[in-house]
Each structure stands twice: as structure tokens, then as C-alpha cells.
Amino acid sequence: MTATIEPTKGGFGTRMLRKEDPKLLTGENKFIDDIKAPGQLWMGMVRSQFAHATINSIDTSGAESMPGVHSVLTGAQLAEMGLWQAPLPCAWPVTEDMVNPPHYPVAISEAKHVGDIVAVVLCSDRYGVADAVEQVVVDYTPLPAVVNLEDAVDGKAMAHSDLETNKAFHWPLDPNPEGTAAAFANAAHVVKARFVQQRLIPMPMEPRGCLAVPSPAGGEIVFYSATQIPHILKIMIAATSGIPENKIRVIAPSVGGGFGGKLNVDADALLAVTLANHIGLPVRWTEQRSEGAGASHQGRGQIQHVEAAADENGKVTAIKVHLDADMGAYMMLITPGVPLLGSFLYTGVYDIPNLSFSCDGHFTNLTPTDAYRGAGRPEASYAIERIMDMMAHKIGIAPEEIRSRNYINGGEHFENFDAASTLTFDSGHYKPAHDRALELADMAGLRSEQARRRDAGETKQLGIGMCTYVEICGLAPSRALGGLNYGAGGWEHATVRLLPTGKVEVVSGSTPHGQGHETAWAQIIAEKMGIDPNDVEVLHSDTALSPLGLDTYGSRSLAVGGVAIAMAADKVVDKAKLIAAHQFEASPEDIEFVNGSFSVAGTPTKSVHIQELGFAAFTAHDLPDGMEPNLQEQVNFDPPNFAFPFGTHVAVVEIDIETGGVELINYIGVDDCGIQVNPLIVEGQVHGGIVQGAAQALFEEAVYDENGNITNPSLMDYLVPSTMEMPNITLDSTVTPSTTNPLGVKGVGEAGTIGSAAAVINAVCDGLSPYGVTDIKMPATPQRIWNAINAGSTGGAA
Amino acid sequence: MQVSMTVNGDSHSRDVEPRTLLVHHIREGVGLTGTNIGCDTSSCGACTVHVGGQSVKSCTMLAVQAEGESITTIEGLAETARADGIATGEQNWHPMQEAFQQCHALQCGYCTPGMVMAATSFLKENPTPTEAEIREGLEGNLCRCTGYHNIVKAVQSAAEGAS
Question: Which chain B residues are closer than 8 Å to A514 by Cβ?
Fold first, then answer.
């Protein structure tokens, strides 16, 4: 016990090095492919080579005679075996009348996209299973296929033969149609645009994979999966397979990135778990990279029809949006909900009084779409930020000027702003981030250099683009999700346990895959309890250790899960205070708690550190009357609102007007995610997010041919940026605390991606404006840029 | 076929199928799972190891082609460095591993072993690189999390520490 209390290390704002790193840097940790079970069988999938075809017959005899092959099973056989209690789940039927044809893990009579599973092989050897898959002979009759979104909208063919339409749903958000109509009728300026959000492949560096280990006598099954959502997966396995939920344990080991790509209940995972359960042997599966590109799910896949109305001063008065969204062949976990997540953001950071939005979801014979970093919100941010630039261009004012004229509350600080979308923005203060980004970019200097190059007729021209984004994160208030017909809540669980020896265990229902939760959660304990973060262990991603949780996506971990931890820590401190008061024979009201130590007010020499009380709570020899032993508290936090982080980004591109080559030469981001727990981690999230958005702008697209084959499924052809494509990134931040939660935190996992695609395309269009180019399709490849320069106008964007 | 090689200083002699990739041999035969597999086209570099001191994508090589070779994986990097007279500090890490943590050059950590192996080999060839040279040197290793900014910083910092 000491009279001088040192401030605890590692609290909020500390750039603490990550606790996760030592195991990752030395190869000690275990990813899914590093885990083995004795007697395991390798699973391999026979996948459709046609976008749409009738399956006439499947000859499995050749494969069955291969060495090590355990069994080869077709969809029809699996159905007969009674493995499925229900089809693959879609947790988000967005309308009552949404069309959702049953989707089983293995197609029975009709394949609906290239990559659809038509048979499954189990074999004792990793290489042997690939050999056996090659020997399965499937006789198909090709059917007319819908291989792009435009054809789906036009109804040129039917993606599902038994349906009379490709349209799955119509979802409107139109709180005040008269207001929108009046705004357009009275507008001084109207801008219309059609933007294409191309399909993207999430491509986490670790491919998907799983291992199901059954216990035939006991009836339990342990399912290891490279998943973002072990808790949701457990429920969905029970619902689809009929294995009792209490017999299922799901463990996500170290997960090598997700970006939404591991936020699903995949056919492959369900096959592994149900087959292992049926045959009583462990079943494992590791995806090949080129297999996963077309067989898992992809992101985006939308056509956006956007109109903006403005008065004579450039004050935008209404936004009208219609989306056509490509569902792909099937509704996966949240496929139909993804475009709707963006619906609320089409007015961006602006005080635009009217929003009319609608979305039609359409089936195609392509890979299903679902969440990819940002999920609906990057698309919305892109649309509003592009149309603001187009409006500025039309009126003849600078991009920063039209933004300044339209920011909520003039760019000054606000709390609880009711947006036209019906959501309430928790807090914002857009001008400081805007000003700082322009200052860091040296906007005046850039414009003068741009003018110089234009005057000199140089080959390499500059383009400067900006974007002020806002995102919805901290998913989500359970009641709001209920209102959107989503099939689960949005709360998060935490337990904080002070152990007898003074160390701490935090049990969290959020499930990291690179975000650094073990470090950040330990810092929350440091901040709240005055305990060294190195004394804290975080237990997560195993449904036996952490039975309650709703997992990690939608920039929710800190804003929901972290808040739950802080609240549970507060409850532990409150209880410990009663023990301290009892030991000091003082009234609890007289006890002070500073940097982890309890003392009696006015008697600072008499103090006890909270870690010293763990043993007293454990022995329970002398606790206050009626107090339960142990210091362990839990919280299930359901946020009252979303959180709305924001920021201003500036992108600078250099365009070779002779070749169309484009290079991103500088990028500045000033982001505001509220109170920061660990700025080092925040910066890392923003860096990576920016690069993923910039990659959508310039490089990435899942390209399908006229037969519905993906032409670039490998990392050789699908252009994930390397070190050579990205510049250094200059970051700064402002801090506007959230009013949604007691920590004032927002979220930052998706922010970079939500800001950067628009900033980069605004830069490209700015660079091309002397050539009459007003828009360009993503990805803005050299060929598209060259065509635009030489054709002018939209360069084929519309 | 019988294949013998030294991995992180220990000799391993095993029977393998002729078509076994070196990376599968290291992971499943030798049992060292720190080296990861991220693709099927030799594009991502997650499987980078040192063969005879040079960085190699271990999915581009058959195990039998490594007959008699000396191989270093992420698990043996620090040990091998110490044998070469490089100080491995308090944590017994190669300075590049330390620089990666200090600069927050990893998030999910899946590309990290390959990235660290590629970076250490690169610095051996070019101990005082410019930023542009670092970017060029690591072009064959993909990372989806960090945007490379902090990876480049880590390699710069390791180079400065060594010079």
C-alpha cells in the first residue's frame, strides 16, 4: 500500500503496442489450417461450371474408386439422408413478400451459378480429395442464364426457372414524398447520375476453412471455423441441421482477416458440420483461393440512379435515389439488407431536408452478394459525394465550397440531429476535419500546381478530389433492427472477472479477426479499473468460453462490445468498493477510487488496490453481510442509437493523358471516431480501409464473361493493391464524442473504405475535367481513362 | 520419395509424394505451421521462407527440389539471426519482428510471417533502401489489412536500426 498513486499505464489514448503481436510475429498462433484432428477427412466440392443448368445425372463411380476416398455424395443423396432441417438461412427478409427460393448446401436438380456445389467428396488426403473431385462426372443441360444486373432488371431470362420474375423485393424509404417533389419542382439546379458499384471480392489473406470434430457417443460437435461470427453460426447450424444448439461448440481460432467475407453461414461450413455429425468422423475443409472468389460471396453489385435538387445558392434541397441491387443467385445471411444499410446515408453529412429512396433486389446467375467492408454505406457515401461534386461543377463553385454551404449546422458542432432519413445523428462537427484535411493537403498549392501543369500542357496532369463522409456504425439498437425485419438483436455481452490473485479475465462476445480487441479491451480495463493491461486476459471467439455474443461486423466492436466491458468493469469496481469500505470500517460513500486504489476520503495513507481485493472476494471469509462471493459482473449492452463517425479525405492523382495511366500520389485523411482507445490501432484501421476503397476506385472488379464465368478469380488477375500501387497516407483526427454511449466512442473499422472511393474518383474526374469528362466508371482503369479523354463526356460511365 | 533438408537448424528426412509442395511439407510434414498459404497462383507471398538464405515463395517449389537445402521459417528466424551475429533483444526476436510490432505493421497477421521473411531477405540485399526501393522489394507480398503504410515504416525502421 502506498500513499502516492501512479497513473495507470495503458488507459484511453495510449498508443499501446498490441498484445496479439508476439504470437502472430513468431508463427506460434493457430489459424484454421493449422488445426488438425486425428482421423480427419478432407472435404472437396464439385462445383457447377455453368451459370444455370439442369443437373441430369452425376457419375461418382470414378471418384469413389480413388485411393483414400471415403464417400462421394450428391445433393439428391444428401437430401435423402435427411441432413437438412431447413434451407441455408437468410436472416434479413427485408419485406414480408420477399422472394427467397429455398437454397440447400448442395444443388439437387438445378445449378444456379458457376461455383454452386453439386457434389461433395470426403477423402483421407489433402491432395487425394482434389484428384477425386476431378473424377466426378456431371451431365448438365445448360439453361438461359442472367449474367449481369441490367439483364436481370430487363427480365431477359429468369435466374430461377421456377420463378416468373428476377425481382426479389421492392423496399422504399420515402418519409416525405411531397417534400421531395416540391424540392425538385422548385429547384434552380438538378443533377442526375447513374453510378455502377461493381462487384468486389473480399479477399482476406486467409482463405475460408473449417474443421468439424464430432463426439459420436456424447453427441457433441466442436466446429472450428475461420469465421467472423461464431455465435451467429452456432445458432444457424442448429436451425439448419437440427443438431441441438446445446451440443454445438463453435471456435473461431486466429482469423486471418474478414472484411465481411467471413460474415456468412456458408454451404461449405454446413456441409462439414453435418457430414462430420452424420459419419462420426472429423471433416475439414480449406478453400482454394481461386475457388473462393466465385463460390463464397462478393460485395457491392449495385446500379444507383441518383438525382439532386439545389437552390440558386447551391443549397441542396432533396436527394432522390433508386437502387437496383444484384442479389446473385441466392439470398445469403444478410444479402438483401446490405443495400438498405446504405439507404439512410444518401444525404451524407449535409442538412438536406428531403430524401426519397427505393431499392429493388434482383436475382442473377452470379455468385451471391453480401457484406463487404462498409456494406451499403460506401455505396451511399460514393453517390452523395460524387453528386455533390457534380453539382459544384454545374454551379461553378469549388467542391469544398458546396460542402461548406451544406454541412449540418454549417459545419459547427451539433448533437442529436434528425436527418431526413429518419435517423438521428448522435454528434458531428464537420468543419474542423474539413479545414484540417485541406490544410494538410495544401489545397491552394495543389490547385496552383494543377493550373501550372494544365497551362504548360504537361503529359502528367493532376487531379484533386475530396470527400466528407459519415457512416452508421455501432450496429445496432435491437429495436431498430427489429423495425428493419432483421432476424437478431444488436446488443453485445461482456463479463469482467477479477481473479483471486488480482489478474483480470474479460469475456467478450465480439470476435476479432485482426482488429486488436485483446489490446483495446485490456485498455478499457486499465482506464476503468486502474489495472495494468498486461494483467488482463481477453476470452473470446469460443462459444464455450464466451457463450453470449453477436460478433464482429458493422464497426460495432468498440461502440457496443467495448461499452459493455466498460459497464461491467464499473460494476466490479462498485462491488469492490463495498468490500474496501467494509475492510476500512468506513461508509461506502466516503470511499474514493483513483487509479485502481480505494481510500477513505481525507485519509489517503490508508488505501487498498482493487487487485488486492480479489482474494477477499474469493475466500468470502469476511464480506459485507449478504454479499455474494467473487468479483464477477456481466452486462448485455443494447445501444440506444447508432454512432456516426465522419471525416474529410483528400486524394491526389496523377494522370498520364497519353496512356490513361493513373497513379494515386497522395492521400490525406482526417477522421473523427469520437474518443480513441488506442490511436495506433485507429490509424491502422483507417490506413487499411482507405486502401480498400481506393482499390475499388482504381483496380478491383469481379469480372464475369457472357456465360457467367468469373474471369479473374485468382490473386494473379484480381487486382488487390500491392505496395507499389499505394502512396504513404497522411492522417490526423478530430474528437467529437458520441452521445450514444457512456464512453463517447464511435467506430472506425469501415470509415476509411467509406471515404476513399469517392475521394479518388472525384480526383480522377477533376483531373479529366479539361477534357469534358464529368464521370467515370469504377474501376477507373487506364483504358477507361484513355477512352474518356478521347471520347469526353462520361467516358462511358453511364 | 525420400527428401532431406535442414529446417531452422534441425535435419528432417521424410518420405513425400513427388508432387508435394515445399509449403505443405513444411507445414504438414515437418509440422511448422507459422508459414501460411494465401493463394494458389504464387501471387500473395504469405508462404515466403528462406531457402539457402534467399526468400522463396514455398508454394512455387516442390519439397523434393529443396533436397539438401537449409531452410529458415518464421519460427527459426530469430535463432538463425543470432547465429549470424544479429542481436535479437529482450524478446529474442529478429529486429524485423520487433520493428513490425513497434510500427503496428500487422493486423490479422496472416501475411506477416511471409512479409517478415521477405523483408529480412530484402534488407540483406539492400541494407540502406529508399522508401521506393522498399515498396519495390515487397511488391510480391500482399497484405489486405494495413494498406502497407506501416509495413514500409517498419522496414525503414529496421534498416535504420541495423545501420
Answer: 107-109, 145
At residue B91, does pLDDT exceed 60?
yes
Closest CA to B60 of B72, B76, B49, B74: B49
Residues 6 or more apart whose CB falls under 8 angstroms from that of B159 comprise B123, B127, B128, B129, B134
Q: Do A723 and B138 touch (CB under 8 A)?
A: yes
Q: Are A218 and A196 in contact (CB under 8 A)?
A: no
What nine digits make up the cell of A459? Answer: 503529359
**Tens digits of residue pLDDT in A572-608:** 999 999 999 999 999 999 999 999 999 999 887 889 9
The answer to whether A231 and A550 have CB atoms below 8 angstroms apart is yes
Among A17, A26, A756, most B C-beta atoms within 10 A, so best to mutate, is: A26
Cα separation, B13 vs B30, in Å, equals: 9
Provide the β-strand partners of residue A59.
Answer: A137
The residues facing A308 across adjacent strands are: A191, A319
Given the cut 0.90, state whether the ipTM is greater than it.
yes
For residue A473, pLDDT beyond 70? yes
Contact B36, A256 (CB under 8 A): yes
Q: Where are the beta strands (DSSP E) in A235-384?
A: 248-251, 283-286, 299-310, 316-328, 354-363
Residue pLDDT, tens place only, A138-188: 999 999 999 999 999 999 899 999 999 999 999 999 999 999 999 999 999
pTM: 0.97
* Domains contained in chain B, CATH given: 2-75 (3.10.20.30), 78-162 (1.10.150.120)
Strands A41-47 and A283-286 turn out to be parallel
CA-based nearest residue in chain B for residue A516: B107
Residues for chain A: how many in total?
A: 798
Bridge pairing between strands A167-173 and A53-59: unpaired
Helix axes A377-395, A751-768, angle to 10 degrees: 30
